[in-house]
Write a structure and sequence with these properties.
Four Helix Bundle (Hemerythrin (Met), subunit A); 2 strands; single chain; 2 domains; mainly alpha; 4% strand
């Protein structure tokens, strides 16, 4: 309380928040302790972002990439099969914003919208929150990848292949195109 100049109420609320996120445990006669990392709720957007700031950058990037490789190709296939006009319009807007991007920051914002739009277009309400969960850490990864590429929009052709496959309702092509795009991303991370 002295170090940060906060009241007991603020301290209690902070401890309550950290406990609800699985970072701390509090027991009578034992006190408050930090829980082991494997007990943390990394499926909480705040915890995931906090963890991304202290984890080894390469190790964290590869873990996030593994998660994306497991989810996004299948989500693209679902988006191809299940999208409605509204979802396709959002995906088309994100794709066009990528085409129109003039710098890294514009590209990254459009790229993030593109990937979140794919999740939204899959029409699976259980997959959509994953985008919200990883949005902040995904944005950082997209920023890094765009800066590591020879030019910021080097993966435009791969994104277009994903978009075209979804738009034409070709699930197999959408899955393969997204897997290909993520393969390019992995190569940049590892390179």
């Amino acid at each position: 309380m002295e170090r940060f100049g906060v009241s007991r109420t603020v301290l209690r609320e902070a401890l309550r928040t950290l406990t609800s996120k699985g970072l701390l445990e509090s027991r009578p006669k034992i006190g408050t302790r930090v829980r082991p990392r494997d007990a943390w709720n990394l499926l909480d957007a705040d915890v995931l972002e906090w963890y991304s700031r202290v984890a080894k950058p390469m190790q964290f990037a590869l873990k996030l990439q593994e998660m994306r490789e497991m989810i996004e190709p299948y989500a693209a296939a679902l988006a191809a099969a299940n999208h409605d006009e509204h979802a396709l319009a959002h995906l088309a807007e994100a794709h066009q914003a990528m085409l129109d991007a003039r710098n890294v920051d514009e590209w990254v914002r459009a790229d993030l919208r593109f990937h979140l739009s794919v999740l939204n277009a899959c029409s699976n309400e259980l997959l959509v929150p994953l985008g919200t969960l990883i949005e902040r850490t995904l944005e950082a990864q997209l920023q890094l990848n765009a800066r590591r590429a020879d030019v910021f929009n080097a993966s435009m052709a791969e994104h277009t292949a994903v978009f075209d496959a979804i738009a034409t309702r070709n699930s197999a092509a959408a899955r393969d195109a997204m897997a290909g795009l993520l393969g390019v991303t992995r190569a940049r991370i590892e390179g």
